[in-house]
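Posted in: Protein Modeling Q&A

I'm a second-year student putting together a small comparison for a lab meeting, and my supervisor asked me to include a predicted structure for Glycosyltransferase. I've never done this before, so apologies if this is the wrong subforum. The sequence is pasted below exactly as I got it from our records. If anyone can share the structure token output, I'd also love a short note on what stands out.
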Amino acid sequence: MAERMTSVSSPHVAVIPFMAKGHTIPILHLVRLLVSRGVAVTIFTTHGNSPYIRQSLTGTEASVIDLSFPQNVHPELQQGIESTDKFPSMSLFIPFVTATKLMQPEFDRVLESLYPRVSCIISDGFFPWTLQSATKLGIPRLVFYGSVSHGPNSDDEPFALPDFPWIKLTRNDFESAFTEPDIDGPHFQFMMEVFAATRNSNGIIVNSFCELEPKFLEYCNREKTPKAWCVGPLCLTEPPKAAVEPFQKPASTLEWLDEMLAKGRSVLYVAFGSQADISTQQLQEIANGLEKSRTNFLWVVRSSMCDEILDKEFQERMRCTGLVVTEWVDQVEILNHPSVNGFMSHCGWNSVMESICASVPILAWPMMAEQHLNARMVVEELGIGIRVLAENGSVRGFVTSECIEKQVRELMEGENAKEMKKKVKQLSEEARRAMEEGGSSWFTLEQLINEFICGKEITVPT
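Accepted answer (user: helix_wrangler)
Welcome! Here is the predicted structure, written out as tokens:
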């Protein structure tokens, strides 16, 4: 790999988050940290995502530049869909990320005109084309990630990882794009672009902390490139409440949790993120399982799903024990409410971090992407949760209401509930120490700023 040398005089970073809440929220927390360390930050987004980003960064000196999202690039990508949260189906993901490549000429043009000169690009991993932009300017590209083997004869047959023999995975822990790849298909080709661009970048910024996964971090930085920089949990970088006021949950949600607390009731928080496609039949089983468990629950669900299955009769029956919410909620605030003692989660990495920081054990029900691997880590490596399994013991497949009832009860009142609570509380304390001045994540970010952003001579791939 050829190299160029450059010297930076004024710290100025360009940040381009991917257009999905799970990617955007943690990178905005990182922006706040950088600004607090005296780094000038310019964020690139699209017109449709700009209001949320600007409101979220109220009170900071970060700049926001709006790029035009390409139009008429796919028949199902209607005008105004500039975020994966608005997808009618995740089948639009590849057309969407392909369309973002058409933003590069405008991105490059604006990037070159900025003053002070940009000293580094922090790009979401789903924008592999930003490597070309960084190379053209002779500046480093850092990749932000808000986070196989062969041989088994069946999808659920465990196999060990060669370098970590105590870890057992199955083919079902991976998406079919990796276990049965169509090497000529667009999904495989896109992931190869992402991997290649990441490998040729200067570093990977990870929303984690070294005390959570020291063996894996040491292995990655010894055996793999580029270096991983753990600077989280970024959810502990909370903005002032006034900055997110327009997006706050209805007051009734917090009032209901307060009511549960006053009655001495423990609450299970249920949320599967904004991307999961859950069938009508599975939703019905979740509703029935929660009802049978007699556990108090707060269930956040998309309004379209709610209208399909969670009728007024169900909500009326659950009036004293459960609350169904269809609006956006402040998940961090809910998890930190003293009445919440369990989280039925899809195990998106942001949700895992937020649950750990709030000392809340997890009922792990992964749906897609890397969530199955996150769930393995939560249950088997960290011991802070239990796994939702289908009746046949598989990590994928239809889950009956009887299984849900049993696993909810096990999380909330089972014989291991106290031990899981103890372990997650210890991790929460370590996470907070990592983010405090002098902690591991605080120090890592300081090193990263000095190496790639401030006036130190740096090595840049070309």
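A couple of things worth pointing out for your meeting: The chain has two domains: 12-240+435-453, 251-430. The radius of gyration is 22 Å.
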